[in-house]
Structures are given as structure tokens and as C-alpha cells.
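Page 37, top half.
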Amino acid sequence: MEDTYRFWRAAICIATGTLTLALSHLASAVEGYSYIPGAGTVIFSDDPSLFRVALPISYVEAAIKKKIIDGTSDGFKVNNANGTFFAFFSDGADRMQLEVRFDGAVRSGGNSSDVNCQARLLLSMPSAAIPDFKVQIDRVGDPFCRFSNDALNALAKETINKGLSQIKLGADAKLVNDEALEEFKKSPEVAKRLAEGTARGNYCMDKHNRQSICITFEWKEPIFKRYIDDLVAKAPSSDKAARTAGFKTRRAALRKASPRHDTVAPAYKFPSGVRSYGDMALFGGLLCASGEEEGCVLLRCSQGKTGQFWRSPAHVDQKPREGEAPFSGDQFKGVVGYFLARKTDGACPIDGLEQQTNRERFARYLEFIRAQRAPLPSPDLALDYGYRSCIEDPANTTCLLLGQEWTWLQFLAGRHNLADAIPADVKDPAAIYGYNPSHLEWLAAFAPLGDNAFQTHLVGVEIYLLRKAGLNPPTAQRAAAILAARQPKNPFYLYLHLGKKRLVSDQLREKCFSEVPSGEREEWAWQSDEGKKMWTKSEGWDCIFMLNNMLEKD
């Protein structure tokens, strides 16, 4: 009797617990600003003081089904789970009735039984301040289970329902967990704006006409627009022309002193930090785009014979360390920088391939990507499909190509006369992923600083790439001003905002003209919070990148 009760208690707790976990996934969707098919939608209005996140019910359903099959608590195991799981009924502006049903086989010890269980829950997501927003889950009526084992079935009505009537499912599923709140507090201005907003949830249909759980974020006034406008107004200004005397000499000295990493070919070493070389595809691509040929060679040597790009030449065809993917969205930006460079045809001294044109290399890359179509959000929850830029990807999203990546791939395919090589199901990134370059202002304003300042640096990289592509929309100009306002002594952000001005050259003299001990040349300083003073450990290549930009002929 106790075993029977414990099974149902475990099953219903797993169902409701997994549901609230799935809802918490919405928080990461908000941070991503991109749509992952099957996992969440961010829909921006023209004014970012109102936007909505949609989580398809199918995602929640599949997550719970997997959880039940993987195993319940209290020693019970469900061998399979079949049939219709969810039926939703709208119940007011902020409430939903959810009917959960499953058929399966359960075993405990040496006993087993087929089981059919049903329960109806009430989900309430009333309007509340964002830090306090909760998903409340309560029962509607009495749940029940029917077992094929007569003895268990006889006990079901008396024991299970009596036990469940005493269980309060409660409401402690906060959308923004305490850990996330602590992260927000590191940026006081962002935390303040977050606290001023409200969130509310309801049943809805997403833009693909799928049943979804929607959460709407709203601010009574356009405070985000005002905040962004204030940042733009606070951006540093400089009318004086840059002073570049001595820049060429300093660049030559840095080229000699900056570290390089060994490869399998003794004759070839590529730019890197003293100990860090794992993310050099990004930095090598930036160097290449700035005119540094060693950066271009680095990228050519980071492409394997299959067409796949790797984190660095030292990683090509090597098995990644446990928990690490061989590539990422960050490194993808370096690939874009390489293919945007005008004069990068050539060979790699270690790949054994003949000299190839950029078009040939890009065609091989697209061919590789087309072969990496993968189920999303995971092989176990195949609700949709997407493409990855690597094969071994333990996180399954580290190499996932989203809206921003496909926008670049389409642009580059057009430049190389390879538009037909783009898969048909991703030819409209804006419609599929919800990506829009106008989001740059939002990202520049709210990307984190501190320990995660590299995310803010990636916004700067995107602006830099847009300009290298001959694109400079007003939203990119404003985003550059926002970055400069938030980190007014970062020469990369100042350069994006001001161009070749005195304020930029002065910062470079301060940060790139002092000697760094050879054993400490480790950091690409511009991706760090300026308060950490990482230029004191500059690898040198970051300075070469900036000196190239300042010396480039207009």
C-alpha cells in the first residue's frame, strides 16, 4: 500500500517538478535573444519595454515524458510512457488547466504492473514584479491511477487519492532564480530596471501556431529606451585626430615578442597566449580582418579536411576534452572575420592541401554544415531540427547555428556566389529564429560585465564585422556608443564608437606601450572588464589588432 502511494507521489512530483524546470528555461531564452526551434521564442515589440517569451507545450511534454522514462524516485521505474500526455484548457488571463495522462509499465523490486494515470492541474502565473514572478501549480479534482495488478488497483482509489489530497503542490517555482538575481545585481543599473518590470503568464499560440506557455514582460514606461538613450548620450566624445607616431615601430616590436604556439609541424607556430590557445579562431579571425596575415594563416590551418573549423590549429582532428566542444558560436565570429577579409586566398603549411581560394574553403565549410543537421533541443527530445558547426558537441547547443550565424552565412554565400548551398529550411533566419540586427542596442546595453564581460566583447565583435562587411546600420552606431559609455577606457569600444580619434590612440599608448613580462602574455585584454586591468597581461596580439586598425588607410 505504501509502495503504491509512493509511486504516484513520485510520478506527480516529477511531472510538476519537470514542468517548473522547463518554465525556468524561459530565463535562459530571455538571455539568448534568439529563437531555438522547440525551446522558446523571444518576440520583441518595437519598444523593448514590452516583449514575450513563448515555450511550446510540446517541449514541456517531451521533457516530462523523458524524465518519467529515465526513472522515478523511491525505487520505481517506468519502462515506457505512451499516449497523449497533455490537454490544455485556457482558464482566464493568467491561468491554465493542464491534464496530464500517461500509460506505461511500472516496476518496483520484483513486482511490475501496467498503469494508467491521470491528473488535472491548475497553473497560475499572476502578474508580479519580475524578481518575484512565480508559477503556481495546484490540483483540480482528484487524480487517480489504474493498475493491471488487481491488488494494486484495489488500493489505488483509497490510498493514492487519499494521500494526494494531503499533498500541497505549492508555488515556489520562480522564473528568475536566486543565482540569476545575484548575477543581475553585479550590474546595478540592469538590476534596477529588472525590478521595475512585471511578468505575467498565460496560455497562447506561438508564431508557428503551436500551443505554448507565454510569459510577457512589461514596463509601464519605456524605461529601457530611456536607459539606452541615456547611455548613448553619455558616450565619450573626441574631435582631435589620433596621434599614431611610433605605432608602426611598436607593432613591429610586438610581432617579435608576442607568443606563438607549437603545432604538429615544427615549422609552423600560430599566434596565441603563453598558455591559452583554445579560442584563437576568434582572435585569429579578428587579426585577419584587421590585415594581419598571421591571423589569416591561423584560420586556414584551423579548418580540417572535412571542412570543419576548430578552435585553433592545435585542435584540428583532436578529440575534445571531456565536457568541451571543438567549436562554438564565439569562434564562429572569427571564421566570419576570415571570410570577410579581401585577400586571404592561400595555403596552410600543415594541412597537406593545395592552395585554395576562399570560395573553395567556404564551399567545403557549407558542405560540412549541411551534413550536421541535428534534432533539437536534443536527440531524446527531437521536436525540431537545426544545424551545428561541429560533430562532437556534448552540450548539443554549443555549436548550434542560430539566427545571427545563418545571417552571416547567407551574406558570405552571396558574396562567394554560393547562395544555393544554404539549406532551404534556414533561408529566412529572421522568420525562423527571430534574429534582427536591431537587437544590437539591447545587447550592448545589457550584456554582462565583470567575470562575463566576454559576452559584451562579442557584441563589439559583431559591430566590427558589420563594418568590415560594408554595413553600418544606425543601430550598430548606437550600440558602439553604448559600449563606449559602459567601458569608456576600452580602446576597442572607443574605436568602434569614435574611429581614429585622439582618445583611442591615447588609450592604446597607455595600454599597449608598456612591457609585459614574457611569461605573463596571456590575455586578449579587450574582452575583459576594464576594472580587471588585463592589459597588464596582454598577449600582444590584441594590441597588434588595434594598431592595425588605427594604421589602416581609409
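Page 37, bottom half:
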Amino acid sequence: MRSSFSLLFLSLFLALPAPALEVQEKAEKPSPTLGVPLSTPLGKALASFDAERYRKELLWWASDERDGRETGTRGAREARAWALARFEEFGLIPMGVEVGGKRTYDQPFPIHIQMRDQVDPAEARLTLAGKDLLFLRDWTLLGGRRKAEIGEASLVFGGYGLTDEDLVRCGAKGKVLVLREGRPGKPLDMVRDPRPGWLPTFLAKAKRAARFGALALLMVSPPGSKRPLFSEHQDLVPWRGSFCPVIQLSWKASQALMKDLQAGEGGKAGTFPGVKVTLKYAADKERVGRNLIGLWKGSDPKLSKEYLVIGAHRDHIGIGAYGSRARKQRGEIHNGADDNATGSVGVIEIARALATARFHPKRSILFILFDAEEMGLIGSRYWVRHPTVPLERVVAMINMDMIGRVRDKKCQVMGTNTSPAWEAALKKATARSPLEWRILPSGFGGSDHLPFMMSQIPAVFFHSGLHPDYHTPQDDPEKCNPRGAVEALKVLLYTAQQIADAPARPKFQAPKRSGRRPRRRFTLGVALRQTGKGPEVRAVVKGSLAEKLGIQEGDLLLSINGRRVRSISDVYRRLRRASRSKKITVTWSRGTRKFTKSSPVKAKK
């Protein structure tokens, strides 16, 4: 699920949710098939869910081997291949793009990388002593050059590299230079330590390495330091020709390399006999995301040409370079078990249930595993703009995001006020569920149902609630509740069946505001994505204040009412203050140009 700290929809749609509706009828006893006869295809599908199978699937998706499933990384590619094999196994029809005249399951899309996230992980290569190191797990780029290609180079050690004498002693010219971070007796943690204190010394080392002719600079952790990778910026050392590439190794990779060090006199210099390094990366390419799309064909000759989308995002935030709520643990693997391995497994298990029961509702079911949700709903927004089936034939969308932390047998569905059809379907589906269900009419949380809602497609969002482990390395599979998740999936499938089999498609209705006074009484009307440069506008709501001011997609917000905004949270705070003033002044940039415009404040009542 996209964090409110990294994606915040400050639009006319945002309002407090209306009071939750309790739709589960307590008088009826819970049923393993929700009261549906086992002899029916739907009953067989509902009976086929298995909590133990769900648990094992979840363990695979959220293991450390997946490296947090950040878009474009090895772990994300493995998750795609795993899900694709399941789609094929269950007989889903490929509904991605055509390649060579044949439909595939994939829908690739470009991701315009921002400052701190330049290099495509799929194209980054670093080999030490014949061993491939993984980008963003074993090493990261700290800047210096936009691209590099070094083959079979020797390494030399220059100690801490604090003086010219250190580099003269080791002979760095034409070799890859290895330096320890920080100073003797003062280990450096670039993530946790205040940057103004260590940045000048760090940049001085980078300049010295380039001045003495090093091909590249490898920064390793000092003895005893288990600091995380500094993954916040890949341009910490400026991109210009006066620097060489600057690489930081993880503390594990640092330990492995330093075992091969043959130190010279005094331990201030040395070599690595027999160890060669190869390096290749490019920071001038777009990263590519991939939505995975499979079709379960409907049974009705006419209605099968309409589609119900069941989706979830399969990506997470990797090692926490962006979106992590645990700043001191950035650089550690964020497994994203609940967010959103639980939803990814949910998509697979619902497809499995339909295939097992050979149950084909009247309308077709389009299963989509979205990519790059954590970067700003990029995959779902791209699909809505470039649908692989006619968008006007998509009757509804059901989204799963964080369904694995069912506690006290409670779960929730949001967004039912997008169509009157939802409430009736959910009332029937939840009546004999062992879970207690909260039905929230409003549901504009930052997840993949939003682009569908904004395209006037009825959409709901299944969710088991936030928790302290959200967007931290502690979101592990052992803390999830497979039995609760499976019960949620049953309700989702029963709800989907009613929408898919209804004679008429659900009618979209614009979400209504609650009778309560909204928390955000003043809105700008933009969707934002956090970047290294600041909050970037990803979408502008039609008719909003932002559109009237002239703000466009791709602009960077700089200040509101004269106060600088560095993060999306800053934008929220500035807008809250603006609601108490008579006018608002916004400053933003577009390329090299800067704009400042003002407007009277019209607070929402």
C-alpha cells in the first residue's frame, strides 16, 4: 500500500469516510462456504481455499530471497515469473501486450526515475572475485558518473583515504580504489548520522580518488560496523566528469572483500591479490515495470465481453530506499509480507479456486498483478490509460492490499459508495462469514483501486487494517494470519460472483462527502510522488485549484505561502495552515523555470 508519506491525494475526492456499516448478520451461523451449497460451482470454489497452502505461498513471496520485491530488481523478476507460472497452470488467457503477433501476460511500462533512484537494477552489474553482487542489496551507487563500464580491474586499498599521502602510498592510478568510511575510531553510518557532519569528508575522499586517477571508488564499512547501505541518493557525489564512479558495499560484502586484503606496512595501504572487479551500470535509462494480466473467460456469450478486474500490487519497497517508515533501518530488506504479498497471493488463490471448481461466472474476470504501486500507483494508472481490454467494458474493480493482518476476526471493505451494487453484494457475502466486517462507504486510500475510481469505474478495496510494522523490515510473513486472509478471500470471491453474474452492470455513482466536517478543509487537487528533489505532481484533478493556478503533471512543488516543502507531509501541513488564511501562494518549478501564483482560500464546509 502506498504510504501517505509518499503518495497523498490532496483532491476534491478526499473527505472523512461516512460511518461504517455493520452488514454481517449475527443471527446466522458462520459457514465454510458462506452458506453457498457445496454442490454448486461457487460452493466448490469457496471450499477449495486452504490456509496452509496460502501460508506456504506467502512465505515464498515475502522471504529475504525476494529482496523486498522492488520494481526492476531480481526479487521482483522472480515474483513475476512465479505468478506467471501460476497463471499458466490455472489456464488464464494472456491479456497483456502482443509480441510477435501473440498475446503475452506482460504489460511493460516506463518508469521515469528520479534523482535518488537512477540506475535500473536489472542492468547494474558488480562482480568481485568472480562473485556477482546484487544491486541495492550488496552494493549501491553514490554518484560520480552517470554510467560506467570497467572490466577485470585490480583493486588497491588506501586505508581511510584522508590525505594525499594515503593515495600516493597505495598507487590508485588505473585501479579501483578501496577506502574505509569515516575516520579511525569514528565509524560512519551515512543513514543515521547527520549528513552535514560527514558529507564534506566523504566528498573530499571522492575528489581525491578521482584526482589520483582511480577508475572507481569502493567504500567499505570500518571494522565492527554493521551500518546499512545508503540508498537515499544515487547522486550524492555530483554527476560530472571530475569524479570517478563511487560505490558503497554492504557491510557483508565489505567483510568478504576485506578478508582478501594483503595489508602493507602499518595497515594503511594494501592490495587484493588475485581479486578482480568488473562494474557496469547506466543511470540514463528508464526503469521498466511490468503488470501481469490474465483472463478467466466468462460463460455468457454476451456478458463475457464485459470484465470484472480483481487486482493487487506485487511490488514492495526493497531495502527501504523510498517509503520506509523505519529511517534507521533503511538498507535492510523490507519483505512486505502484508504489503502486499498477501494481496498477490490472494489474486493467485482466487484464480486457483475458479480453476479448481471449473467455475466460470457470466462476465469475464481479469486478474491483474500491478507493478510499481509503491512508486506512485504507476502500474495501475498506466493500465487505466492503456487498457488491454476496452475500458468501457470494465464494469467494476476489486482491489486487495494488506489483507493478511486480520486481528480479532475483523476485516474491512472500503469504497462501497462508488455503486449501490456493492452494499447488497457484500451484505449477502458477509452474512455467514466468521469475520466481523466493517463496510466503509468512502475508500480513497492510496492503492490501485484509485485510478479506476477516478475513471468512473465502481471499485472497492479489501484491507485488514494498518499496523506498526507497515513499511518497515518487521512486516514479515510470520506475523500474518493465513486463516483470516483466506476467509477474506472467500467474501471477496462471493462478492465478485454476484457482480459478475448480475443481469446489469453496476452503476457508478460519484462518491458523496460525509455529513461530518472533513479534516482537510482546503485542497490543492493534485496527486504527489515523493522524489529526491521534493514532491512531484503526478496528476492534477480537473477543475481543481492546482489546474486553475497552472500546475501540471511533472512539476515540482517548492513552497506554499512562503514556506518550503521538502516532502508530501510538508504539503499537507502547509495546506492545513492555508485553510486559516485568506489566500494561498504556491511556488513550483518546471524544468529550469519557476512559477509563483496566488489564489483566495475557499475552505470546504
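Margin note: The first helix runs from residue 41 to 47.
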